[in-house]
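Do me a favour: review this protein, sequence plus C-alpha cells, and tell me how the chain folds. Record follows.
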Amino acid sequence: MHWVDKLGIWHRLPVFLGLAYLAGRRHLHQQYNLFNVGETPVGVRFNPVDYPYRTADGKYNDPFNEGAGGQGSFFGRNILPVDQKDKLLKPDPMVVATKLLVRKSNYKDTGKQFNVIAASWIQFMVHDWINHLEDTNQIELTAPKEVASECPLKSFKFFQTKEVPTNFYDIKTGTKNIRTPWWDGSAIYGSNNEKLKQLRTFKDGKLKIAKDGLLLHDQDGIPLSGDVTNVWAGLSTLQALFVKEHNAVCDALKKEYRDLDDEDLYRHARLVTSAVIAKVHTIDWTVELLKTDTLRAGLRSNWYGLLGKKFKDTFGHVGESTLSGFVGHKKSNNHGVPYSLTEEFVSVYRMHALLPDDLQVRDISAKTGPNKSPPLIKAIPMENLIGQEGEKNLSHIGFTKLFVSMGHQSCGSLELWNYPMWMRDLIPQDPNGKDRPDHVDLPALEVYRDRERKVARYNAFRRALLLIPIKTWEDLTDDEEAIKILREVYGDDVEELDLLVGLMAEKKIKGFAISESAFVIFLQMATRMKFLSWS
C-alpha cells in the first residue's frame, strides 16, 4: 500500500484493483484509527426486538451499548488528540482566514459537477449528524494590525466548545454531540422527544407541513423542523422536501396496511425516509463528489454489494457485506469501539466554500434558453436568505422556484481563496433558531475550532492516517501564489499548517471535489455509519 501511495496511482488503477486498494486501506483504518472517548458501559445490553424503530434521542441502536450514538454522547476520534493550547493563536486565525481562505474577487465554481442543491444537501446531512455542546464562557478574537483593514469584524466573540471529563484513563477529556450521529433523519425529526412532539401531527403518523409545501413557523418566524441552528433557505427547502416524503410514505403504508396506528405509521415511515436519505447521499451525492469510475463502483457496491442491485432486489441480503453491501447486514460490527462520529469527521466536513455569493432566481414559467437554463429573474444576496429573513424571502420565492434555481447554479469549489466574504460578518443562530447578538468571522472561527478541539494539524493528520506527509510547500500545491502566501503565514515549517488550509490547498485527484486527505476519513466513517445505522 505504501508503494502505491508513493507512486500516487491508486485512482488510476483498473477499477477492480482500485477497489482492492480502498478495501485494504479501510481495513487498516478500522484497526488503527478508531479511538473511543468516554467510558464504555459494561454489561448494558437490551433485546433489539424491543426497539425495531428509531428512538427520538438516538439510543437503543447498538445492542451492546444502549447509549451509543445518543444525543449528548461523546465525539470519538480517528487520531489521538493533539493539545494545542499554546498554539491556539499561532498563526492568528484571522490572519489565516484573510490571507488564505477568503474569496478575493472571482467566484470559483465546480462547473457542471456540483450545483447549489448539492451544497445545501451536505448542510442537511451535517444537521442530521453533528453539533458540539458549547460552554458558557466566551472567547474574543481580535484582528492583528496587519490584516485589520481587510476584516469586516475587527473583533468577535463566540462560545468555547465545552470540554467534558471522560472518566477514562486514556483520553481524559472530550466534547459532546448535541445531535444524534446515526443516519436517522434528525434534521427533520429532531434529536429528542421534546422536539419530536412539536413536529408530529399525531394523526396517520405524519409531520406538520404548511399548505404551500414549505415548513411551518412559530410566532417568532422560526421554522418548525428537527434542527433550526444556522439555517438558510436551501437547507429549509430540503427539510420541507423530506417532511413531504415522510408523509407520502405514511399514505402509502396506510393504504397497504390498514391495521397500523399513528405510532406504527410514524415509526415505519421514519425508517423508510431515513434510508432514502442515506441512499441519495451514497449513490447520488457522493458519486458526484468523487466522480471516478472506481468510486462509482465502490459506492454502489457499498450499498448493493458486488452482486449488484438486481440480485439484492430479488434475493435480499445474501452472505457477507462484500457480496450484498453494508446496508441490511444481519450482524453489526463496531470493530471494538462504540459508535460515534469523530472530531476529524467534523473537520473534513468544513465545506462552506461550496456556497455562492448570491442565489440566482430563475423564471420557471418561461422557456429555457440555449444553455437549457430558465432565464434569470434576479440575484438575491446570500445574507438575505439566512435565518428568519431567509424564511420570509423563501415564502415569496416558493418551493419549486427555489429548487429549480439551485439546480441551475454551480456551487463553489473547495480550494484556497473561495470562502464567501459574507461569512466574515455572519449572524449565527442558537439551537432554538434565534439570532445571537454577536456576529462571527466564520472562516477564522473554523480555524480556531480545529485547534481548540485538539484536531491534528495537516501533516500530523496525514501521518496518522498512513498518508505520505509533505516536506515542502511544493509537495502540497503547484500554485506559486499559494506557496508564497503559505510561507508568509507559516514560514518554512510545514508542520504548522492548519488542517482546513491544507485540505483546501491540496492537489486534487481528477474528478474529486474534495482532497484525498478528507476522502480517507470519508472512506472509513461513511461506511461505518451506513453499516451500524442500517444493520
The first helix runs from residue 2 to 7.
